[in-house]
Amino acid sequence: MKLTLKGENIFLRALEPEDLEFVYAVENDEFIWEVSNTQTPYSRFLIRDYLKNAQQDIYEAKQLRLAICKKGTFLPVGLIDIFEFDPRNNRAGIGILIKNPDNRNAGIGTEALELLIQYAFKNLNLHQLFANIDSQNEASIRLFTNFGFEQIGIKKDWNFINGKYKDEVLFQLIKNQL
């Protein structure tokens, strides 16, 4: 029997209090702020409080953040999120981050995204998923389009980063198009 959030090489799990330092490092990495629309650092106190409440049901919190772990270790290498969860319209946003560049382009993101797409459509009964991606983030665009996400719009000059406006591309995956 195949478990929903376990793949061949990785598994997705709920965040734990022990993930404090990993989440703290992710949330305070200014390079990552560009993709997360963050502009200020987070304290350990705020992250600890967030982790305490991270166990809320997705129907209450309207989001779900999971740690991405390689098989054989409980330590996270990345995070994958469902956000703007809208059960009335059966849709949600999806985002993924692999923290260490050494773990990128190794199939981890592909396997994690596949697991979360299956979970969203099968277990949450969603009809569609969307992703907002910087127009210059070729790796993320390739990752999502490989799963059938289609570009449905461009938000011109959407994000102001390092003194320049950048476009953000909206991608969508509808369940019955798989």
UniProtKB/TrEMBL annotation:
Domain annotation N-acetyltransferase: ranges: 10-167
Superkingdom classification of source: Bacteria
Keyword Transferase included in the entry's annotation: yes
GO molecular function: acyltransferase activity, transferring groups other than amino-acyl groups
InterPro entries named in the record: Acyl_CoA_acyltransferase (IPR016181), GNAT_dom (IPR000182)
Keywords, in A-Z order: Transferase
Stated name of the protein: Diamine N-acetyltransferase
Source taxonomy: Bacteria, Pseudomonadati, Bacteroidota, Flavobacteriia, Flavobacteriales
